[in-house]
Amino acid sequence: MENNEVLLRVEHLCQYFGTTKAVDDVSFDIRKGEVFGLVGESGCGKTTTGRSIIKLYDITSGSVYFKGIRIAAGVKSYKDAIAAAKKELAETKARLKGNTSSEAKAEIANASAKCAKTVSEMRAEIKKAKFDQKNCDKEYAKEQTAKLNAEYRPKLAANPGDKELKAEYKNKLNKARKSRLVTQIQMIFQDPIASLDPRMTVKEIISEGLIVHGEKDKKVLEEKVYEMLELVGLVREHAGRYPHEFSGGQKQRVGVARSVIMNPELIIADEPVSALDVSIQAQVINLLNELRDRLGLTLLFVAHDLSVVKYFSDRIGVMYYGKMVELAPSDELFLNPLHPYTRSLLSAIPLPDPEYEKQRKRIVYNPLAEHDYSKEEPTMREIKPGHFVRCNTEEYERYLEILK
Fold first, then answer.
1. How many structural domains compose the chain?
2. 403 assigned to some structural domain
3. Could you identify which of 9, 14, 192, 318 might form a hypothetical disulfide with 251, taking C-beta atoms 3.0 to 4.6 angstroms apart as the criterion?
4. Is the pTM of this model over 0.85?
5. Which residues are CB-contacts of 330 (< 8 A; sequence separation ≥ 6)?
6. Would 231 be classed as within a structural domain?
7. For residues 199 and 61, what is the distance between their CA atoms, to the nearest angstrom?
8. Do 326 and 342 form a contact (C-beta atoms < 8 A)?
9. For 38, phi and psi rounded to 5 degrees?
10. DSSP string, 304-346
């Protein structure tokens, strides 16, 4: 049964580094329980999108909503709107300079009022965005603390001498005060070697998140670590070892255990298999599939290996130069690739069939030859239900004909 509850919503996400537009106006949503694949060539902004969602970067513009709460917000679009309104007013005044007619005065007055309204609205949006960016976790912690107090205070009033209940309440209150909404999103990093601290044992690496968020019971920590190790196909004896004592696949399993122990609702898997051998890749993918079914996880799966993404994802978004160019259900994308870049990517997938490989034609994507955006800029448009392509009106009509 398909779940239509949206867990993560990304709206017009922009992540700029100076003049480099690493992610530029990307929007998508991820439903609870689904695997959303994000594909594209190296450097197209896939990893930056994931890191922006989990707040490793402060986003430049746009909004990220998790469970309906805005966890990240950028202000550039609002500042640009203020600058554009002021520029429009200045142009109107310059155009009507010296004109003393009542019509000219009325036009200037209207333009001034319009500018003042825009500036006021955008400043309010900037204030709201800065508040959400800074305080979403604090507000969430307050909410969790209030819920806990509402649950435990009647119990404590009814049983004032119950020491176990007091200790349980104190432990949970400590965790609630330190709870953060963003910790319900965890990340599995691309490089299993660089993402594990070489000075920490596996036990310390996996339990670190729980300790940071207030768990002090050593027995609970130990049991949780052992449970996670067994869940990802390792054994208890591995807990006392250091990262250099493991193979690449085992290190990635430790990375998976570190993410899953926090009991997240969303995992961002940033090319989790690209640094591994093909046989180990299959093991890690099967592990993630198993965890998804067992724990009901939602995944944002970043990769550039399309055959892996097809096997693993429910929906796929294709990125090129920081922009989303196509978004569709997995089977639909492979059956009806419409954007020339998507077709180019799919033509690069090799198959273990010598006869097919002899005839396979590689499609080269040249954006200057493929698109003419001199008259109209492209936007994301729905070609058929659930299938979106970045195109202008002329291309939109052409894609509709192709589907017919």
1. 1
2. no
3. 192
4. yes
5. 37, 309, 310, 313, 314, 315, 316
6. yes
7. 37
8. yes
9. -120, 115
10. S-HHHHHHH-SEEEEEETTEEEEEEEHHHHHHS--SHHHHHHH
Confirm whether 205 is domain-assigned. Answer: yes
What number of other Cβ atoms are within 10 A of residue 358's Cβ?
A: 7
Amino acid identity of residue 68, one-letter, is: G
What's the CATH code of the domain at 235? Answer: 3.40.50.300
Q: How many CB atoms lie within 10 A of CB 148?
A: 17
For residue 3, count other CB atoms closer than 10 A to its CB: 12
Domain that holds residue 293: 192-264+273-298
Q: Are 51 and 100 in contact (CB under 8 A)?
A: no
Distance CA 343, CA 316 (A): 14
Query: Phi/psi of residue 331, each to 5°?
Result: -65, -40
Residues 38 and 49: beta-carbon distance below 8 Å: yes
Task: Examine residue 163 and state whether it is found in any structural domain, yes or no.
Answer: no
Task: Tell me how far apart the alpha carbons of residues 346 and 362 are, in angstroms, rounded to a whole number.
Answer: 9
The H or E element that residue 392 is part of is none
Sign of the Cα torsion 328, 332, 338, 342 reads positive
300: alpha, beta or left, given left = phi > 0 and alpha = psi -120 to 50? beta
Question: pLDDT by residue (tens digit) across 241-295?
Answer: 999 998 888 898 898 889 989 889 999 998 887 767 777 777 778 888 888 888 8
